[in-house]
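Tip: read the tokens left to right.
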């Protein structure tokens, strides 16, 4: 009997062993799933049981120094679909596809592919739709279609401070300019909403809902003054019409602190309509030329040579120079733009004499001049808040020959960025201290706490206060008696320097292609504002000297800024009378000069042949009596029909802000808005005739 039970016992042991192995394998599999794949399966389960929506954080605002909003975020809606909602309802799916295709202008085949994608609990159909589109979708009550709260970046002034502000991606992440540079502060922290759903992905009426609130981004407060920025961009728009350049760059600095009060590059674009379809064009228009590109500045660099020569004592106010029209160095002849003869230091600066500045450079020597180039910050980036900041192009000191040194002394064979030049000249006139330029003032959180602030920073002392005072006086004489006369402002002391630099292509001078500029400051004895205005390849006038192409616009910007900031005229006893500039277009030079003289103005022209094509300031502007009006004439035989038609500024006072903007833009003008609500004033009087695309500032208040 025992012997007969042995096989059965062995069989049972084997069976038990097999089941034990299977059981252990099952336990191992369960352990593997729980320990190693638990999170993945948990996520899959949650995806079936719940729907999760991102609550996008409001991006922080960007404001000017006075609280004017330059960039803000508004609430919009995006459209999502839950494909599982149509698992057993083909008709409803087709209804959704048909309606969304029509409302959102999306191809049906593209929509069908998304709506049938059941591998995802939720798919995005369209981001940041218009209010009309969201209303139409909401009214249809489409099954499985959700309108998700989203945010959109809005720039109230459209094409204003374009390259400085930059823009965001469609998803609201900083892509260019300050939006990119300060993205980690501006973006905030997204929240999340999670709701329980049924097997088809529809929300359960009394299901669990979990919300993690979004944290709003910090606000960025700039040193930019909206009004001064407006003055700068208005002047640039006028210069584009008259000079037809490749580009224009402008900077306004407080030379005492390094604060950037205004900065712009033209051409630009509307930040609310970023041209994303043309990558090459977008990259070109997004470049902040004021900080990114080095250029050969020409005679404006002479300010650095002058300051160094005075500080080192190789020249003084009693020094004289003889200009024969050219100078031979290392066997190479370098011309001055004119034969000036014997002249004092003041006259040499007023005349912008290349020969005199070559003498100054040679007296300093390569080592000493290079010390000052470095001390004025022209070897290094300024550390301004810009990811795209470029650097100078300076010949290696060891390779500099006497001929090279002479050319560098008057602004050739050296290239620097506009912000480097503006910063260096500020040091030359502010008492001798190099300041770090700053666009951003502070970062403030949603509770008003200062997260980060930018303090005034002195890099180093470059020259003495006494030398700086001499530089100011000499540059004031340039405007009073020299090549900068077109920057004179009645009642105010103005200093400055012209610049006209040749451009090179393939190592050769590019005929007819210049960079024309003017850098000016006021008041000359106590500078509060410095303006750099650069016109690249002006082509609309017969003369491309910086004194003609750039100086008048610096005058306009400085004059408006001085009045805006309530800087009193130097001569308080002088009666300053403001007179309206008459319209002298389509007149001969002789007729125009008589009309302007009768109104109390002087005038000068780029060419006295042909009819007057444009004028600066424009007709209707009210400026101080005795000011000079610049006239631009057609070339002989030019078709007069090419002259831009003047536009009469409409009256928009007491109109709603949106209606006023629409009216101004409808007649071919640009609208710049301060405040919200009803228009209380406009910068150009109704009835005044101005050029197309002139920017009209309207000040609004809520009733």
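Filled-in amino acids:
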């Amino acid at each position: 009997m025992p012997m007969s039970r042995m096989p059965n016992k062995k069989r049972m042991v084997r069976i038990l062993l097999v089941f034990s192995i299977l059981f252990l394998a099952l336990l191992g599999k369960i352990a593997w799933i729980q320990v190693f794949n638990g999170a993945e399966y948990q996520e899959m389960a949650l995806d079936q049981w719940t729907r999760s929506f991102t609550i996008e954080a409001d991006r922080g605002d960007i404001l000017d120094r006075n609280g004017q909003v330059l960039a803000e975020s508004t609430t919009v809606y995006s459209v999502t679909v839950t494909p599982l909602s149509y698992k057993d309802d083909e008709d409803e799916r087709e209804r959704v596809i048909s309606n969304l295709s029509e409302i959102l202008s999306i191809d049906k085949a593209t929509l069908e592919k998304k709506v049938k994608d059941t591998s995802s609990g939720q798919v995005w159909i369209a981001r940041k739709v218009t209010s009309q589109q969201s209303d139409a979708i909401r009214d249809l009550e489409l099954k499985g279609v959700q309108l998700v709260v989203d945010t959109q970046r809005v720039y109230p002034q459209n094409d204003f401070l374009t390259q400085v502000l930059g823009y965001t991606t469609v998803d609201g992440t900083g892509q260019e300019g300050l939006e990119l540079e300060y993205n980690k502060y501006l973006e905030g922290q997204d929240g999340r909403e999670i709701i329980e759903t049924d097997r088809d992905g529809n929300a359960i009426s009394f299901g669990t809902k979990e919300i993690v609130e979004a944290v709003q981004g910090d606000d960025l407060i700039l040193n930019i003054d909206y009004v001064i920025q407006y003055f700068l961009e208005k002047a640039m728009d006028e210069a584009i019409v008259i000079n037809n350049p490749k580009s224009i760059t402008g900077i306004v600095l407080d030379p005492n602190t390094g604060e950037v009060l205004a900065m712009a590059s033209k051409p630009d674009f509307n930040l609310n309509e970023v041209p994303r379809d043309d990558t090459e064009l977008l990259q070109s228009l997004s470049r902040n030329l004021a900080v990114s590109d080095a250029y050969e500045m020409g005679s404006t660099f002479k300010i650095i040579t002058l300051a160094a020569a005075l500080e080192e004592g190789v020249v003084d106010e009693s020094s004289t120079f003889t200009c024969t029209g050219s100078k031979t160095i290392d066997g190479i002849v370098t011309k001055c733009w004119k034969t000036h003869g014997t002249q004092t230091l003041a006259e040499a600066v007023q005349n912008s004499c290349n020969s005199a500045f070559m003498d100054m450079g040679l007296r300093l020597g390569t080592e000493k001049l290079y010390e000052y180039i470095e001390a004025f910050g022209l070897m290094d980036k300024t550390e301004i808040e810009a990811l795209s900041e470029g650097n100078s192009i300076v010949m290696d000191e060891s390779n500099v020959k006497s001929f090279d040194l002479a050319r560098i002394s008057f602004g050739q064979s050296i290239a620097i960025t506009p912000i480097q030049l503006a910063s260096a000249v500020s040091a030359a006139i502010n008492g001798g201290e190099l300041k770090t330029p700053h666009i951003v003032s502070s970062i403030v959180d949603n509770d008003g706490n200062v997260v980060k602030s930018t303090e005034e920073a002195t890099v180093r002392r470059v020259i003495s206060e006494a030398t700086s005072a001499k530089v100011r006086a000499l540059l004031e004489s340039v405007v009073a008696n020299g090549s900068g006369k077109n920057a004179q402002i009645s009642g105010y002391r103005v200093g400055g320097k012209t610049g006209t630099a040749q451009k090179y292509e393939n190592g050769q001078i590019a005929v007819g292609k210049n960079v024309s500029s003017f850098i000016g400051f006021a008041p000359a004895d106590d500078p509060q504002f410095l303006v750099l205005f650069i016109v690249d390849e002006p082509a609309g006038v017969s003369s491309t000297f910086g004194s003609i192409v750039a100086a008048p616009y610096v005058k306009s910007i400085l004059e408006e800024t001085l009045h805006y900031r309530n800087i009193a005229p130097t001569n308080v006893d002088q009666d300053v009378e403001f007179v309206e500039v008459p319209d002298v277009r389509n007149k001969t030079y002789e007729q125009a000069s008589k009309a302007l003289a009768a109104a109390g103005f002087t005038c000068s022209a780029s060419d006295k042949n042909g009819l007057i094509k444009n004028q600066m300031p424009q007709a209707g502007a009210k400026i101080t009596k005795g000011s000079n009006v610049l006239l631009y004439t057609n070339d002989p035989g030019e078709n007069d029909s090419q002259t831009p038609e003047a536009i009469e500024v409409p009256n928009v006072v007491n109109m709603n802000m949106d209606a006023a903007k629409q009216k101004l833009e409808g007649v071919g003008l640009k609208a710049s808005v301060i405040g919200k609500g009803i228009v209380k004033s406009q910068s150009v009087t109704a009835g005044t005739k101005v050029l197309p695309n002139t920017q009209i500032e309207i000040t609004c208040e809520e009733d």
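Residues 392 and 416 are 4 Å apart (CA to CA). The longest helix spans residues 2-35.
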